[in-house]
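Predict both folds.
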Amino acid sequence: MRPLLFLALLLLLFGCGNDNKTAEAISKIDVDLKISRFDRAFAVATPSDIPELKREYPYFFPAQYADSVWEAKLKDTIQISLLEEVDMVFGDFKAEKQNLQSLFKHIKYYFPKYEIPEVVTVTSNVDYANRVILTDSLLLLGLDNYLGSSHRFYDSFARYITADLDKQYLASDVASAFVNKSLRFPTDRIFLSHMIYYGKELYLKDQLMPELQDAQKIAYTQEQLDWAFANEEQIWRYFIEKELLYSTDHKLGPRFLDPAPFSKFQLELDSESPGRIGRFMGWQIVKAFMDNNEISLAELLSLSAEEIFKESNYKPKR
């Protein structure tokens, strides 16, 4: 066997061995995940149940509202329809619970001091901008925001928004909420800083949700992800030639980072591109950095975008 081939095989086997040990250690972590189905409790409640619900879920019942408000909500046809649709899509929530348990096991492995919150499922009148709310002790999941991209409740929304409103993205959104609480958003307006911020988020998903498809992590279709990889070199060349990396132009966020039907290069390829392509590029930079540096996830979070970029030796795949 050739020496280089033998060395490559050894490295591969060593890497697989480490991965197996990590997976085994994570599987042994005990996570006591409490899930409270407020949506179901409210769906079957009667006016006489309101006092008990208020005791169990005081954060959902502001003191300034009389019980008559909640009694009226019990009869509201829109609320009833929302709750029925959620029940049909999620049922007993068993699969979702397994996914969340796996996510929190990985979080505890990499961040041992993290306290697992209580999970509470709710309906939110399809408030998709706040479909996951994570506090120190609570994780609120608005399940009516995950009924499927073609659901009739979403008919008035733009297609690029409804594409994300599917239960396959629920655990991924929770991972994003965890990262956003753990990672400070850039205070500067430098485009590279924001790219790296989202790159860190996506790289953490690689580690916290290894079983998840890459397309699900960034909420792309597989075709969109394939396009991003196929055009990675061309995208990078555009960013460099237009001197965008250190630009503070506030328009770069909407063009390349924010949810959108497509990214805005102002070229013919725009209509083919997925939105948030700057996040994808930040992801590749962070991956390159981690491939070249032996540091923990916690240490990664504290590093500056400039340090990560310079030490990544990032070169787009040809």
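Second protein follows, with its predicted structure tokens after the sequence.
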Amino acid sequence: MNQKILLVEDDPLVQEAVMDYFISKGWRVQAADNGDDALELLALGSFHLILLDVMMPGMNGFTVCRKVRETSDIPIIFITARVMEEDELNGYLLGADDYVTKPFSLPVLHAKAEALLRRAKSSMRKRLQAGSLEIDVNTHQVFNHGRPVSLPPKEYEMLLFFLENPRRIFSREQLLIRFWGYDFDGNERVVDNHIRKLRKAMGVCGCTICTVRKFGYRMEVE
């Protein structure tokens, strides 16, 4: 197996149980008690998967996930005692790949981890296309009619997100949380400004980010 997991969990009993189970299955596991320590470990070494508790003292799991997604697409499974649908949806918007709810089955968590890594390996291709737009996810290059399109990091991440979720409507609040986080001090107008810049950079390409009145934005492909 030789897969390495970062377990971020402040409950020592849960942490010990998960570590023991995964180690017994041949995984290597490194643990952190809080978000700050987790980000330090990620900066120092590489991991194949993150098991991330949502409710922790200090930096919560949502913030950790957002910060990780700024630089990495490593698979993330949230471990949470909260079962509110809104929390789960926001977790996915921030970039989580799966959820388990406490109390959970260790065999089920292990099965989810294995399945997630299999999907991650099979999607390492990775080119996305809509109309004449094409994104090489591995190199972060964007092309329109074969010509390179220069995008700042935020616009690139937004374009990638919309291409991965075509025809789905996202509210300004959801986009604000996804790309700026819960602790952002500004207002939803920042979303409109970045969408406007992204549309201009995209040009004529056979797809567009449409405004859905009173709801938000949606990617439409001709």
